[in-house]
Amino acid sequence: MLLKGRTAVITGAASPRGLGLATARLFAEHGAKVAVLDLDTEMAREAARSLKGRGHFGMKCDVVKMRDCEKAVERALKRFGQIDILVNNAGVTSPKRVMEIDKTEYDRVLDINLRGTFQMCQAAIPHMRERKTGSIVNLSSVSAQRGGGVFGGSHYTASKAGVLGLTKAIARELAPDNIRANAICPSFIDTDILGSMRTDEIIERIVSAVPMGRAGTAGEVAGCALFLASDLSSYVTGSEIDVNGGSHIH
Ligand SMILES: NC(=O)c1ccc[n+]([C@@H]2O[C@H](COP(=O)([O-])OP(=O)(O)OC[C@H]3O[C@@H](n4cnc5c(N)ncnc54)[C@H](O)[C@@H]3O)[C@@H](O)[C@H]2O)c1
């Protein structure tokens, strides 16, 4: 039980095969109470109900809307009394070539992936500062480290590189307040993020470039999030942890 007595807020955590819900499950198994946030109220509630133990809750939170982020933090504080862990997992991908990305698509991807992460941090940091403790875990991507080449376009890569820079900057700024911030950089994990774009051909192409010869699982990313959320990583901050089957070794 690595998170007994701890509480966590996880964005984008209602997707049944997603990294957020896998992380929520593992955190709950380790004794944490979890706030499951996502775009759909009923899906978020259902995901929270499926977690082990009591006291979890689900609610709608569109991370693009600052007021939603603030409301989620307020609700978590009311229910839990404290927030120990924030996992910024909500994200979208978009496999477009650079000249196909119009303003709307650029804004959509940057707003959800980068602005959403920033806003959730801004909503949670005052409380974490007050208590002089907190762990923030942000989902970046191997695309940010190696210049795309997996699935998302350059705007996706830019958003995830932004998440990496943001993570390192807040880690430095918040370290005196005993708040840690780290990023996870997964390569291809077989979730529903590709939606209708998921074909056997695409999976085969992506996996053929992975030295371990397979896609990662959501549980394997959750394990890394658990390490970063728990005291096992108490002297780890500003780091980027690779979960990529060897597809980017640096
Ligand atoms: N799956 C991969 O291969 C992979 C690789 C690298 C990074 N990532 C990152 O991991 C994170 C989780 O990805 P996943 O594969 O579980 O995807 P997923 O599509 O299964 O889950 C993403 C969740 O985010 C939610 N979401 C989308 N927009 C939102 C918004 N505005 N506000 C709140 N929630 C919103 C969706 O409803 C969904 O539940 C994403 O940030 C993604 O970019 C995934």
TrEMBL record:
Q: Which NCBIfam families match?
A: PRK07231.1
Q: Which organism is it from?
A: Microbaculum marinisediminis
One GO process term, biological-process aspect: fatty acid elongation
Q: Which SUPFAM superfamilies match?
A: NAD(P)-binding Rossmann-fold domains (SSF51735)
Protein name as catalogued:
SDR family oxidoreductase
Instruction: List the lineage, top down.
Output: Bacteria, Pseudomonadati, Pseudomonadota, Alphaproteobacteria, Hyphomicrobiales
GO function terms (MF aspect): oxidoreductase activity, acting on the CH-OH group of donors, NAD or NADP as acceptor
Q: Give the source's domain of life in one word.
A: Bacteria
User: What InterPro entries does the record tag this protein with?
Assistant: NAD(P)-bd_dom_sf, Sc_DH/Rdtase_CS, SDR_fam
State the similarity comment. Answer: Belongs to the short-chain dehydrogenases/reductases (SDR) family.
Q: Which PANTHER family match?
A: BLL7886 PROTEIN (PTHR42760:SF135), SHORT-CHAIN DEHYDROGENASES/REDUCTASES FAMILY MEMBER (PTHR42760)
